[in-house]
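Task card 7
Instruction: Convert sequence to structure tokens.
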Amino acid sequence: MSAALREDTIRARVLLAQDREPVLSHLLRHRRENLHLIDQVASIASRRRPQEMPPQVIVVWRGESIEGVAALRPSMVLDWAITEAGLEACLPILGAASAGLIKSPRAGVERLWHQLKLRGREALLDRRETGWVLSASDSPIPDFAPSPPAQLRPAVESDLAHLVDAARGSLREESRPDPFRGDPEGFRRWVRGRLPRARVVALDGKPAFVAYADVRRSEGWLIQGVYCWPGHRRKGYARAGMAGMIREAFTAGAGHVQLAVVEGNMAARGLYSSLGFEPFCELRTILFA
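Output:
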């Protein structure tokens, strides 16, 4: 095989620790769109909590250049700049998954989901979402705060039962399967593993609002799992909780804060717009088995 042919050969392989820096440099060209994938790649060689599933990331190389990156687990995420050739090389690996969650740019998901359906996979959830972003350089820090006696604070162990309830409530409202029914202890362990990332607005010691800073990097923070208990909605707790997390992120030096809003959720759009967030990307999320 000639050297020219070898340089043009495309190969997909699992990310190795020694490849992290060039892969991160590639992903950082689209740091907002690739934030979750950047965090997974950066954590490859780090020590993770035992209850967390270690990430598995696939990199497609053409010689020494990168055609694209894709996470296989804990969820499927595609590099925003993945090429057609890169996606084609990833499909046999990603398409072998028997179950999972995809959350990526709409265009890439179309092809990936087509391959998964050919293999008999069925969607348990299929929805469109919009990514929203608030930049530290362009936006003033919101100064909303919860009215006493409500208090914004990090979650603590005694909040666990309430946060399990919130996670289940969120799943019900999204018409998603509830893993608690089949494995209550496993579900509690999963929620407990996220406690250090959770912030709550507490009223009389009990959470009224919760959100999770699942990615906390200098490039940006990714906030997920936003939930306000039904009896506490429209009272300013969600606004105060989100404003507090934004302040925390920007004080820590994050370049931006981002989150995703399900298509049609006008209440969430109104809240985030009032805080200064703006749409910046279109996503598709599919839970399949």
